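Feature request, filed as a ticket because there's no other form

It would be nice if the structure record came with a short human-readable summary line next to the tokens. Right now we just get the raw output. Example of a typical job, pasted below so the devs can see what we mean:
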Amino acid sequence: MRDKISSFQMSSQFNGHGDTVYLKADTVKIPPVDQDDITLTPDYSQYALYAVGGVPVVLDPQNIDMFLNRMLGSRSVLNQVILTKGGPGGGYTAAFRIATRGFTDASYPVIKPREKEAVVGSVWYFVVTGSSNLIVKRARTTKKDREYIIALVAPGERIKVVTINGNTVTMPTEDETERCRWVKVLCKPDEGYKQEGDGDGEIEGWVQRIYVREDRVRVQRFNEIYDYSKMAISYIAKGDKTRTKIKVTKNIFEKWYSFKDADSIEQCPNVNGKWKVAVGPGILDWEYPINGTLGREDEFKGFSKCIKVRLHLKDSKADASKPFERILECIVTDLKAHSFHYYPYFDEADLSPDDALRFSSEFVDAAIATAIPGLVQTGIRYPYAGNGDVVSLKHMDGSVIEFYGGRKTDFGFTLSDYMLDEIEVNYEYETRGLKMSEL
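Raw output as currently delivered:
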């Protein structure tokens, strides 16, 4: 080493060129570390995965035994287990990859997380059966025999739905009757349907999922769905051999309202501080089905009909004297049937002559709107609605709220100064169980 230029440090000595050199330095005091940012290493064992029927194997890739390799070829291999922070409750989620080693027989490991104790709870739903009472059943069957009935619940009334780990218990029909989705509920048996052993408390039963909705306040935020500043309604005129698409573009934020009789001098009626309006069915019922009728007055009997329309001032109308936000409280007394999103609905070859006529438009061969069905007036009628033309060109206005009366209604401010933000629904109970004609 004497002929080489090299050096290394060892303890308090510095060795260079074979000679020992002693160095002196000032003592350095390291300040204490702030303990607020110190966290313990998580206990990853609680996130370990179990491979059912798995065989633990340690391999040396360079010296692997060929007989062992062939034996493992019939099994798939679980490797690269990765823990990622951000799971439920801020915990970790586990992911893994599967390797087959090229000789797999299509086997695949069954992976399950460490089992946790199930947490059983309940959440409130409400009944949306139109004019009929909801039948709570002892079994998942559409049979109407008295022996299957636990209780009858009126439209608009609340009912407890069973949850396990926060999820509703949903299952299909269990016999040969009509196939439906059912949810498990808790309710007290009606006196007329009590059976031996029911007791006086709540018992478990089943109801069809389509007849209940979760009972919580809902907010439809229009600035989070699609690009409603450029909503497009396109259609092909009836008999146009060139199949030329005519496109109508609407800014829903800017022109979010319309009037039933715009030129009328009549004021929009106000009921206890709430303006009478019509909206699409998807505003009140966020699960409104494609086969909804919109012609039966009692179809929305179970729903709350009051809504809050939140608006904000347009930048172009900014003025210190104008509030930035306004809330219009409204009461829904009619529904906008022309708020669907495509036509034709069905393949004409699959329809009977009567149905082909029923679902046929006199004005267009095809139409489509870039909107979620039930929220915006598109001019395309819901298939089974009982009113108006299948496609109405005059209703392609893109409005969300339709006020009764004329445009000269005094709202206390100018509607066109404000843009639509969101609509809040299902926050009150007084109008549940009432028909719209009773409001």
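Something like this underneath would help us a lot:
The helical segments are 66-72, 281-284, 353-358.
The two ends are 102 Å apart (CA to CA).
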